[in-house]
Structure formats: C-alpha cells, structure tokens
Amino acid sequence: MMKLRILIFTSVMIPWILSSAVKGEYMEARKPTNLMVSDLDYETPQESNTDPRAAPNTKATIKRIDLTGNLIAEIEDGAFSKLPNLEELSLAENRLTKIPALPTKLVSFNANFNKLTTQGVKATAFKKLVRLEYLYLGNNELTAVPRLPESLHTVHLQNNKIAKITDETFCKGNTSYYLRTNLDEVRLDGNPIKLSRHPNSFICLYTLPIGQYN
Length: 214
Description:
two-stranded parallel sheet, single chain, 214 residues, seven-stranded parallel sheet, 2 helices
C-alpha cells in the first residue's frame, strides 16, 4: 500500500505540481494526502515534439515549495537534493516525526504543527544552513533546542516539550563578549521551562525570549 501511495504521488501529483510551476519559481500542493514523499527525481512534462535537451530545468529554478496541510508522514533524505536553489520550504501541518536533509540555500523553513521529536531532529540538522533566517518548529514534540545557525533572525519553538536549556543553547557559555546580533525573536512560550531559572542563557541576545518567567 505504501509503495502504491508513493507511486501515485510521484507519477500523478508531482508532474501536476511541476506543470503549474514551469513558468515560475513557486510550487504549492495543498491537497490532503497521507503519503511518504520519496526522491523528487522526476521529469518536467513536455510536449511530444519538444527536444528534451532544450527543455527548461524546472527543478533548478524552483525557489519556494509549500506542502502545508498534506498529512505527509515521512520525507526521505534525498527528496530535495536536486533543488539547489530552494530558499523557502513549508512542511507545516503534516505528520512528520523527523526532518529530512535540507537544501543548503534555505532562507526560511516552516515545520510548525507536526509531530517532530528530538530524536527526529538531529542536533546538527541546521548546521550547514548558513543562509537560514527564519525557522519555525512550533507545536511539535521537541524536548531540546537543536543547534541554531548564526544567520537566524527568528526561531519559533513554542508549544513543545522543552524543559531545559543551557548557556550554550543560544549563546557561548565560555565568553561574555559574544553577541548574537542577528537573532531578534525567540519563542519558547507553551513549554514546561521557566526561563527565569536560566538567566545566563540569554546574555548574548538583544531581546529576551517570549516564554514563561514566573
């Protein structure tokens, strides 16, 4: 049954999505489908008399993909490997328990309202994303904060199960001279952590995180 679902997604939905994106840089699929997304290695639909060598490389030009609200339960690590220019990716409102390998040029990643666990989000999941500015991981089941790239401006971790942070979660605990100048919005509200118990965890930030202090 799972192989059949993958076949339907890759042979029917993906070509349909691509056909609407050939002239643009944006792909959107919001048809609720309980599927596992496999490798997105597919061909752009072409007319029978079109020379394949002259066809545009749609995958290389796509900069934004929105898969919000599709009930996707799993995405293989290689699913986005052939989308080198992808900058915005939304996987919100699905059923993911882990994050796949992400394109290195991402600027915005949204995985709000999933079932992500700390085991499914490696500590180094975002390490190579040196351009990432907006990270949304709210309303999941995370118990720890993953390692955050220096480029981040906004990180949302609200409504998870985070109960502990350290002096190195956001800052560098071994120095008081370090300032995280880019990061100006952190949401930790709705977690079972009292931020007032960790005053040294935010000394490098210009603004205090949103969350419970009392």
